[in-house]
């Protein structure tokens, strides 16, 4: 067995294999190598006798501070050889967290619920990060060993079984990966070499453009390719790419997109990169031959914010600007509300317009809720906790009738009553207390009392956040689930609803009502508290789907509060 590690500043390196130390030989580029027999291993740098896990570890059965374990990808018996993948246009995504999706909180337990997703009409399952992090429970965004699958979920074989099972049911798998920072416990990369460069809001950031950054960039790209190739994942969601500090002529994202496209050609199936970005810059999803980075899609927070204001009436913080008349209509037509325009939250102009003539809408994900927008509220409350069912239904109708790629957060489809709260389980008492007090201070600035903010370290916080799978059959939840099924089915039955051409979108709105026209179809919604009569902008011949008791005439619709009608 050959062991290798990049440690360009070390004068000596050893590898401890099954308790026995072996000297390593220096090679070009700062790499060290040694041959030894065994399965448990760790590296020792210089004369330090503290063993460190492999930065490129494939398995960490003892946690992020323990030795790494040799893992053979070729030993797993895949059954998905006939899988040809799924493209993003026409897709419907479902975001889930393995630890709280089921009572068991494992990959194998999640497999038992995949039939629900197939019945709902989902095409892509987006999984929150499964890389190794310290502790047993957490969101996954504090990972420190990016190539090792979190053991409490089932480890690497468990994740492969999950992906294999998804493919057997026609579901593509999207994996959330975090390259913008490392977590606060177990981040040993800087002991090996110049991996870090500064900090961002969440932790140490990577050195992507300084001295020694070639190997750091390779570290990121190899990790991404590994998920797609070795775990058969179909797409990656790249967390907060605006926090990737890279001043090179070829940005890391562009380099990554080029290599993923090459791997896609080699594997013969679509591979997709989806960014989360706060930049409102269409360059991310513009093709490389047109001067962009060549990513395939990005989340659309502006649409979320505009919908959130329309549904809830919240107008504080970054929601303030989205209370402007016509904000929702603008985002449906133009994607970005802030497109080189003033952002009061930032105190400056923000964003750049999307070229609606050339950029298709499927490159932007639309959602009512996601893990961030729920979990980063003080109590982790879902929209269903405060918004009437009819208004929720209107919001869902807008998402699924939009020209964008829809995404559902787990449990949203049945208006789950369970919250999804922020939780962690750091074993270090000092770190756990720092997370606890930091969370409470953060929300105290927004008027929340300490007693109102759930303790993120308390195991009860995780338990509260698990889905209750008895709810979908109950009154109130059952009707919402049926609505989501019908909306997804209609999106497939009527090509105009999935048409990604932004030039084909027409929207009218005033006050609490909105009419979205998609080819021969008209969606009329009333988000407000008073009845309204809205012009349909054409002759109505048939009502395809309705919520509440709208009255559809020839050219107008009378909408009570919290109702919608989709007509043809």
TrEMBL record:
Reactions that this protein is recorded to catalyse: hydrolysis of (1->4)-alpha-D-glucosidic linkage in 4-alpha-D-[(1->4)-alpha-D-glucanosyl]n trehalose to yield trehalose and (1->4)-alpha-D-glucan
Keyword terms of this UniProt record: Carbohydrate metabolism, Cytoplasm, Glycosidase, Hydrolase
Annotated localization: Cytoplasm
Entry superkingdom: Bacteria
Keyword Hydrolase part of the UniProt annotation: yes
Pathway involvement of the protein, from the record: Glycan biosynthesis; trehalose biosynthesis
Domain Glycosyl hydrolase family 13 catalytic, chain residue ranges per copy: 95-445
CDD domains: AmyAc_GTHase (cd11325), E_set_MTHase_like_N (cd02853)
InterPro entries found in the cross-reference section: DUF3459, GH, GH13_cat_dom, Ig-like_fold, Ig_E-set, Trehalose_TreZ, Trehalose_TreZ_E-set_sf
EC number: 3.2.1.141
Family statement drawn from the similarity comment of this UniProt entry: Belongs to the glycosyl hydrolase 13 family.
Name of the protein in its database record: Malto-oligosyltrehalose trehalohydrolase
Native source organism of the sequence: Amycolatopsis minnesotensis
Organism taxonomic ancestry: Bacteria, Bacillati, Actinomycetota, Actinomycetes, Pseudonocardiales
Gene: treZ
